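User: Hi! Is it possible to get a structure for several chains at once, not just one? Here's what I have:
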Amino acid sequence: MRASPCLARAAIAMDLDRIPLIGMLVRRMDFLGARQRLIAQNVANADTPGYKPRELSEDTFAREVSRELGGAAPVAVATTAAGHMQGTRVADGSKARSERSGTYESTPSGNAVVIEEEMTRLAETQMDYDTITGIYRKQVAMIKTALRGPSA
Amino acid sequence: MAVDDLTRTMMISAAGMRAQSVRMRVIAENMANAETVGMKPGDEPYRRKVVTFASELDKATGAEEVKVKSVSEDQSPFGSRFDPGHPAADGDGYVKTPNVNTLVEVSDMRQAQRTYEANLNVIDSARSMLMRTIDLLRS
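Assistant: Yes, the chains can be modeled jointly so their relative placement is included. Here is the combined structure:
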């Protein structure tokens, strides 16, 4: 049986990412994954001469909310002529940019990675991730409860 | 090749562990040869080796991994020991000894071990995060 357009539309509407909270959680998970990658990079290079640790700058909650509520994308392409097109790519994980962090210690070889600091950040990231997946799970459970209806 | 961040994390940490194990191997070489001297007068004893690391961009994964840049020789001077009966003793009765300081090697070893463990921790954490994600499907 061919899926009717109506069904297809329903399927799109069921896309969990369209629920603002879930979309937010997914983006947060992306961010934490990227952060974990940078921590791995820093730790792997803990003995590389001249290596400076990097970290992701945290997106502020306010910006996240404004994006969720349909506010303008943080960086929009200026359209100065009628023929110009607005970019279709929404600012996603790329909003988190990597930058040097200000550490307080560097070895004579110019390496500024502090393993203890990285380990703290690692634990933080993991805890955040656990929280996010927990919230995601709860949210899905709530949707399921709503779907089950009163008869159950 | 599209690789997600957590898998990439594991690859980077694995590269870090690989680099540290090379370092460990070189430290073992140095320790094992801490008493290796020449066989006849004028022979050079064992020269200590040092490992240097460099970060390298892996084009396939887009991650900055670490690799062993070079294993070079320590240029510091040899020690000498008074041992006239030794076959490698010179005219004054001195034997050149390797420029290996066991204390330095031990502290190097500890550092390598610590970094290795840190990398292992990162892998552990990334793995747990991945498992959490997969668990989302189960509920």
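The mean pLDDT of chain B is 89. The interface with chain A takes residues 4-6, 8-10, 12-13, 15-16, 19-20, 23, 52-55, 63-66, 111-112, 114-115, 118-119, 121-122, 125-126, 128-129, 132-133, 135-136, 139 of chain B (CB under 8 Å).

User: Great, thank you!
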